[in-house]
């Protein structure tokens, strides 16, 4: 808000002021007085917001975090289990205001002196964040110097401040830090005492519209236009739209915007729901020939206490609300000729968890789970002495619904539907077999369309089935042992192991435990008991071993099919991006020979493609060489390359090059190895290296 020395002098002046309206306001306001002396320290987070998938360097989410001392930062999970702060937006915005002399535009009146208490308050309120929300990813085309067009992604972060202003930051993707910030524009909302913020994104006749919905602690809700001049194909409102204007002192706690399809009007519409006290305010926005139609009302009789949290399933429009007494309401929108109505039913958490107090709820991306934060409720009319916060998970879908949704999914990515796959995984681990209806439906999908997504789904099912057949570990693998086993360093067999290797081993154990012990009804004791019976009975053990070998053979067959399909894609990229005989650093000849080595593999597309590539290569082989002994690395295995001197190098599953460096990447589930892109790589190879795992769709980092 000003030079450090001047700010310190002003703080001392206001704290010792004889005017109680100044001194008491200053001392009790934690924005001015974050250290607070005798008050509790400002530790922890006030609010957090996840970006859409695909915003960081690994194609995952960014996290915007607002701390209790009003500092807004953006973090990314760049390496495994390591969160890195990329940028401090509070500091950057403060620098911008300082350069502009704390004026939003040049026409504003000159600001007063920092020594004036109203000016001191104004400078703080104009950069104290209340809420921040991410927009969807905007994709535009950028023309390069050679007249080629490339898709450039960007995302917007709207930050609502205490004085009602909204700063809209535009970031280029992938977001790497300060250098990825494209612009920052400030909008005046005109809302006094703002409390909550949400993006309004609406698509009508292939035209995308956007705006910002702002709610006030006094009651009003309105949409503010956001002019996205830099983003082509996006439009906004001509003027603000007031959704609720009554100053009825019911604070707006949470706002959700859900895109839906209107079955009677035969067009897309936008449903805005807001929690106001114990009520849910809803507003249906519909664009017709007459303009923007707005229908609004309140849903009453839901809770006897104020709503503390609200979440929405954006796939079917279902809204969930909860109050602190442990009651959760499910609201299902039903369209009528004119607008809509809500059917609601009560979910009593006390029947599942006992007497609890609820503090927050969230629904998983595909609506499979409802996460609930709870503490102990009253026992015999008394509050608990200590509060133990727990995150409880409630299933909202059955196994059959999750399986059907995965089979009919338009996303066709297992990683993006991990909550649905978790329900399927739990069912197979529990029953130790894949249900017949799912197996038949999946085989039909594979025969009819042959998409690699269904092959990956089949691989996922077979792996979980194999996992369920294995003997459960006698000890819990993730718990650290408290035995102090002393050994001489010179005699230690693991002397050369690095910290990364140890961490990798730990993560493998943890992933195995998470697959084996789900905590949702998988009876480990029964599994171990079954295994004991099988091991004691030789006749019962042999069929189990045969079954495991059969499943293993099926897994290898599916993995080989997925490998061949990806090899065809890589060869297609090689053919498209090479004009003459060129060493692309991809072992093209080796991949071609590997594809044709199996007599049982008869793919006409692959044969035609390989014929064209070999004709273009003109008898050149361009073999890879071992960096240690300079011997040729033959392409005999898709996972590793071994030279004649026995040096072993892992192969990149994205380009099939040998990773001849000590640093490489792994997919999230440790399925595959991938190399890092180098500055010498052409754009098409870098694009290949950005792909997800070909077996499980997980990001690679």
Layout of secondary structure:
Elements: H1 4-15, H2 20-28, E1 45-50, E2 62-67, E3 72-79, E4 82-88, H3 89-99, H4 117-125, E5 129-134, E6 138-143, E7 149-161, E8 165-172, E9 181-188, E10 194-204, E11 207-216, E12 221-225, E13 234-236, E14 241-244, E15 252-262, E16 267-276, E17 279-288, E18 291-299, E19 307-312, E20 319-323, E21 327-335, E22 340-348, H5 350-353, E23 356-363, E24 369-376, E25 390-395, H6 399-407, H7 418-431, H8 436-448, H9 452-469, H10 499-516, H11 524-536, H12 538-577, H13 588-596, H14 604-617, E26 624-625, E27 632-633, E28 640-642, E29 648-650, E30 665-666, E31 673-674, H15 683-689
Parallel strand pairs: 11-13
Antiparallel strand pairs: 1-2, 2-3, 3-4, 5-7, 6-7, 7-8, 8-9, 10-11, 11-12, 12-14, 15-16, 16-17, 17-18, 19-20, 20-21, 21-22, 23-24, 24-25, 26-27, 28-29, 30-31
Molecular structure report:
The chain is α+β, with helices and mostly antiparallel strands and about 700 residues long. The chain folds into 4 domains: about 1-190, no CATH class; about 190-355, 7 Propeller (Methylamine Dehydrogenase, Chain H), CATH 2.130.10.10; about 400-470, no CATH class; about 555-690, no CATH class. It is about 30% helix and about 30% strand. It is built from 15 helices and 31 strands. Strand 8 (about 165-170) and strand 9 (about 180-190) form a beta hairpin. The longest helix is centred in the C-terminal third of the chain and has 40 residues, at about 540-575. The chain is globular. One of its GO terms (molecular function) is histone acetyltransferase activity. Pfam families: DUF5921, TFIIIC_delta, zf-TFIIIC. InterPro entries: DUF5921 (IPR045803), GTF3C4 (IPR044230), TFIIIC_delta_N (IPR024761), TFIIIC_Znf (IPR024764), WD40_repeat_dom_sf (IPR036322).
């Amino acid at each position: 808000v000003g030079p450090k020395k001047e700010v310190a002098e002003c703080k001392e002046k206001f704290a010792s002021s004889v005017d109680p309206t100044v001194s008491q306001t200053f001392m009790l306001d934690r924005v001015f007085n974050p250290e607070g002396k005798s008050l509790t320290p400002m530790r922890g987070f006030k609010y957090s917001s996840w970006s859409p998938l695909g915003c960081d360097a690994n194609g995952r989410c960014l996290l915007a975090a607002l701390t209790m001392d009003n500092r807004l930062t953006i973090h990314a999970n760049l390496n495994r289990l390591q969160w890195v702060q990329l940028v401090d937006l509070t500091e950057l915005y403060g620098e911008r205001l300082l350069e502009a002399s704390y004026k939003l535009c040049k026409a504003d009146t000159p600001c007063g002196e920092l020594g004036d208490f109203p000016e001191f308050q104004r400078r703080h309120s104009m950069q104290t964040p209340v809420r921040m929300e991410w927009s969807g990813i905007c994709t535009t085309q950028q023309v390069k110097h050679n007249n080629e067009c490339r898709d450039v992604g960007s995302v917007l972060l709207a930050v609502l401040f205490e004085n009602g202003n909204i700063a809209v930051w535009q970031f280029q993707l992938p977001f790497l830090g300060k250098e990825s910030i494209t612009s920052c524009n400030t909008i005046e909302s005109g809302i006094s005492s703002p409390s909550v913020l949400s993006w309004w994104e609406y698509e009508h006749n292939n035209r995308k519209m956007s705006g910002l919905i702002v709610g006030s602690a006094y009651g009003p809700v309105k949409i503010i236009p956001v002019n996205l001049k830099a983003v082509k194909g996006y439009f906004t409102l001509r003027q603000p739209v007031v959704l609720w204007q009554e100053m009825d002192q019911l604070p707006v706690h949470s706002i959700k915007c859900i895109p839906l399809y209107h079955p009677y009007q035969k067009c897309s519409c936008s449903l805005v729901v807001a929690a106001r006290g114990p009520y849910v305010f809803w507003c249906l926005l519909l664009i017709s020939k007459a303009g923007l139609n707005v229908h609004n009302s309140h849903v009453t009789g839901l809770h006897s206490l104020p709503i503390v949290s609200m979440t929405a399933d954006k796939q079917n429009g279902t809204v969930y609300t909860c109050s602190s007494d442990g009651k959760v309401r499910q609201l299902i929108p039903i369209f009528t000729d004119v607008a809509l109505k809500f059917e609601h039913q009560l979910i009593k958490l006390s029947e599942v968890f006992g007497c609890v107090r609820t503090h927050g709820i969230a629904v998983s991306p595909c609506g499979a789970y409802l996460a609930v934060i709870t503490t102990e409720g009253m026992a015999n009319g008394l509050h608990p002495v200590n509060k133990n916060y727990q995150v409880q998970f409630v299933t909202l879908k059955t196994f059959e619904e999750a399986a059907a949704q995965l089979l009919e999914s338009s996303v066709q990515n297992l990683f993006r539907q991990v909550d649905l796959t978790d329900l399927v995984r739990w069912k197979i681990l529990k029953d130790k077999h894949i249900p017949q209806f799912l197996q038949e439906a999946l085989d039909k999908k594979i025969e009819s369309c042959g998409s690699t997504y269904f092959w990956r789904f089949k691989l996922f099912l077979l792996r979980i089935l194999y996992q369920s057949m294995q003997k459960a570990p006698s000890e819990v693998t993730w718990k650290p042992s408290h035995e102090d086993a002393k050994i001489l360093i010179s005699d230690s067999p693991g002397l050369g192991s690095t910290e990364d290797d140890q961490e990798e081993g730990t993560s493998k154990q943890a992933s195995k435990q998470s697959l084996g012990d789900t905590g949702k009804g998988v009876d480990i004791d029964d599994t171990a008991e079954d295994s004991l019976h099988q091991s004691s009975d030789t006749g019962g053990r042999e069929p189990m071993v045969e079954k495991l070998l059969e499943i293993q053979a099926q897994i290898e067959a599916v993995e080989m099919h997925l490998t061949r399909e990806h090899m065809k894609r890589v060869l297609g990229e090689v053919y498209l991006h090479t004009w003459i005989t060129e060493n692309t650093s991809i072992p093209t000849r080796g991949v071609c020979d590997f594809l044709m080595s199996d007599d049982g593999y008869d793919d006409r597309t692959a044969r035609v493609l390989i014929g064209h590539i070999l004709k273009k290569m003109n008898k050149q082989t361009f073999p890879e060489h071992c960096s240690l002994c300079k011997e040729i690395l033959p392409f005999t295995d898709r996972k590793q390359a071994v030279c004649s001197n026995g040096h072993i190098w892992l192969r990149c599953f994205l380009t099939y090059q040998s990773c001849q460096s000590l640093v490489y990447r792994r997919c999230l589930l440790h399925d595959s190895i991938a190399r890092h892109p180098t500055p010498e790589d052409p754009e098409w190879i870098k694009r290949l290296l950005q792909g997800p795992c070909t077996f499980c769709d997980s990001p690679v980092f």
